[in-house]
């Protein structure tokens, strides 16, 4: 690992009352690689993702983006660096349509005075949304129906397409396959590989060890708010990962 | 996900589809239904009193009566689309009117200069209360119901403190003559109604066509999601409550012009009337759905009923009964429609609830 990670965390700590959610956690992801982040419930995965996507203030620790130290003050700040997150609840507005969700917070203004008055170029946004969905092979039947009336798979596709379209550096996917059927899951895993091939660093959080081994290049294990192990996905096994997550391998490790 | 089958069709017809959809968004199902209800009510009264009811003179009267509520309804629609509520509009109207009347009274003359100052003062007072509402709701995280219940009492109480509880009846003649009772030059359309219409059109465009409007819907739809994608939710909420307040200030000066008095005791049910109209017009109290157009229609139903009952000789008190029934019916229809929509979709593209169990095809 001589390359500089696109995103790196060093010694992050964060407490909620008496609970140390992050206790000196390290993490790194390179451009064009899929890193799986695994850990038992309460290991600090979600907290780590929140911290790295600008949703959480830290007690201490360093975050480095492309080698330079940054302080992620807000989700939009993280977004401006090209860090995108697909949240477990997808963070879509159910009453808005797919194109509106795609561009929410980043609308394309109409040119000239109209744009300055707050009018949006809906046509351009629809076209770009359609391109983004097609690129992912996402089944989004209507760009103008409210997202709330769509299936879980379609919502997921929209949320992922949105993140992929904007992610230039890193994309976090928090349990993207948890609520999906077999076909959609395979679609999401394919998407992850495609995004990686574009040179984006992908962080994949999952409880499904077969998926993790299937899609990840490296696996980093969190336990009790700390990274306890990093494995090459090709040279590890479900047993080894579960052992590291639960601490059963502690005695065996040097 | 069977991509190949579906995508080409929707890609090809996307622009044609969206055109009809955006039209549908403007004439959303419920506001359209309620328009039909309004037409039916209108036709019934027209049949019962063909000599009096359907004349321009009478319709003009109804339009004039609705104008002030229309101005309040704009702000209320924005607020309710965010799943908020603003109970303070009536008191805010009174307070703004009282302060404006006081200032104009102290200036002495009754010319346009005084009237202009009065307008500025009234709108500023309304804006001030609105900002207070907005900051307390967005920053202090006090629920809108409580904040605006507090400012409802606060504004009304202060209005009474300022006047000693006695209405001010001195209003510059120019205000009364031109705005209050006057017509748009060359027509028989009340000036006050033209002002309301202009505001309705402007803010209808703002709500349905601009980013400000989109963020309003986004917050009502899912505030947390909006926050996460970078919408400045706090600022947006403050702006919306400030807008509602400023429009209450506008309504305050319009009310002064129309009635020639501060009418301190006359606005105790205004907030509820406006909320009822907004909801009858198809705006969801749960946020994310609503149109200004629907609100306007929703305002006309009580007004037409009131006017019609008087003309056909029914005790006008029945109007309250009828409006109550329409309100409940409107919400009932809306709930059923939404439930049916959810079921209809669940056959093919089910909601998230069913996804876990039986998603095998």
Task: Describe this protein's structure.
- The complex is a heterodimer of chains A (254) and B (361).
- Chain A has 254 residues and is α/β, with parallel strands linked by helices.
- Chain A is built from nine helices and ten strands.
- In chain A, α5 packs across α6 (152-166).
- The longest helix of chain A is centred in the C-terminal third of the chain and has 16 residues, at 182-197.
- By secondary structure, chain B is an all-alpha fold.
- Chain B is 76% helix and 0% strand.
- Chain B has 15 helices and no strands.
- Chain B is globular and about 65 Å long.
- Chain B starts with a helix and ends in a 6-residue tail after the last helix.
- The relative contact order of chain B is 0.17.
- At the A-B interface, α2, α5, α6 and α7 of A face α1, α9, α10 and α14 of B.
Portion of residues in beta strands of chain B equals under 5%
Tell me the Rg of chain A in angstroms: 19 Å
Strand/helix succession of chain A: EEEHEEHEHHHHEHEHEEH
User: Helical proportion of chain B?
Assistant: over 70%
Main sheet strand line-up of chain A: 6-7-8-3-9-10
Largest sheet, strands/sense/barrel of chain B: none
Number of helices of chain A: 9
Instruction: Give the structural class of chain B.
Output: mainly alpha
Tell me how many strands of chain A there are: 10
What is the distance, rounded to the nearest whole angstrom, between the alpha carbons of the first and last residues of chain B?
10 Å
Low-pLDDT residue intervals, each spanning 5 or more residues of chain B: 1-18, 345-361
What would you call the shape of chain B? globular
């Amino acid at each position: 690992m001589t390359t500089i990670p696109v995103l790196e965390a060093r010694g992050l700590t964060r407490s909620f009352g008496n609970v140390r959610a992050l206790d000196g956690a390290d993490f790194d992801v390179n451009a064009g690689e899929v890193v799986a982040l695994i850990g038992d419930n309460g290991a600090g995965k979600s907290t780590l993702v929140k911290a790295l996507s600008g949703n959480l203030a830290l007690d201490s620790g360093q975050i480095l983006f492309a080698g330079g130290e940054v302080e992620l003050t807000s989700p939009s700040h993280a977004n401006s660096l090209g860090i995108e997150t697909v949240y477990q609840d997808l963070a879509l507005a159910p009453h808005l349509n797919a194109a509106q969700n795609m561009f929410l917070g980043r609308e394309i203004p109409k040119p000239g005075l109209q744009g300055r008055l707050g009018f949006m170029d809906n046509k351009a946004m629809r076209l770009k949304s359609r391109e983004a969905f097609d690129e992912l092979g996402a089944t989004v039947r209507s760009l103008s129906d409210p997202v709330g009336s769509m299936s879980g798979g379609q919502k997921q596709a929209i949320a992922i397409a949105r993140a992929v379209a904007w992610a230039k550096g890193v994309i976090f996917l928090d349990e993207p396959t948890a609520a999906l059927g077999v076909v959609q899951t395979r679609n999401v895993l394919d998407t992850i590989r495609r995004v990686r091939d574009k040179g984006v660093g992908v962080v994949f959080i999952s409880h499904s060890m077969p998926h993790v081994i299937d899609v990840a290049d490296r696996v980093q294990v969190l336990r009790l708010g700390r990274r306890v192990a990093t494995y090459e996905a090709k040279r590890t096994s479900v047993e080894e990962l579960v052992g590291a997550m639960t601490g059963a391998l502690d005695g065996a490790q040097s | 996900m069977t991509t190949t089958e579906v995508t080409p069709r929707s890609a090809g017809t996307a622009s044609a589809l969206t055109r009809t959809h955006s039209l549908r968004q403007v004439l959303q199902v419920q506001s359209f239904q309620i328009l039909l209800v309004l037409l039916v009510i209108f036709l019934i009264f027209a049949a019962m009193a063909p000599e009096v009811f359907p004349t321009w003179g009478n319709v003009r009267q109804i339009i004039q009566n609705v104008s002030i509520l229309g101005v309040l309804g704009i702000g209320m629609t924005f607020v309710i689309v965010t799943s908020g509520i603003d109970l303070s509009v009536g008191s805010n109207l009174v307070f703004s009117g009282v302060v404006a009347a006081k200032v104009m009274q102290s200036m002495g003359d009754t010319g346009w200069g005084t009237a202009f100052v009065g307008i500025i003062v009234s709108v500023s007072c309304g804006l001030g209360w609105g900002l207070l509402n907005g900051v307390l709701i967005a920053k202090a995280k006090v629920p809108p119901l409580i904040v605006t219940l507090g400012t409802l009492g606060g504004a009304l109480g202060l209005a009474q403190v300022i006047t000693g509880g006695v209405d001010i009846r001195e209003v510059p003649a120019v205000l009364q003559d031109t705005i209050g009772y006057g017509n748009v030059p060359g027509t028989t359309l009340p000036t006050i109604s033209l002002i309301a219409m202009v505001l309705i059109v402007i803010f209808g465009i703002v709500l349905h066509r601009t980013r400000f409007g989109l963020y309003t819907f986004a917050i009502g739809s899912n505030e947390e999601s909006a926050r996460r994608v970078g919408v400045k939710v706090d600022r947006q909420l403050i702006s919306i409550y400030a807008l509602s307040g400023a429009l209450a200030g506008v309504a305050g000066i319009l009310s002064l012009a129309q009635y020639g008095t501060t009418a301190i005791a006359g606005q105790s049910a205004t907030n509820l009337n406006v909320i009822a109209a907004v909801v009858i017009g198809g705006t969801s109290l749960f946020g994310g759905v609503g149109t200004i157009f629907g609100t306007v229609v929703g305002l006309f139903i009580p007004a037409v009923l009131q006017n019609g009952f008087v003309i056909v000789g029914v005790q006008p008190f029945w109007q309250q009964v009828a409006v109550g029934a329409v309100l409940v019916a409107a919400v009932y229809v809306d709930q059923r429609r939404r439930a049916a929509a959810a079921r209809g979709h669940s056959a093919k593209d089910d909601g998230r609830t069913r996804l876990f169990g039986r998603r095998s095809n």
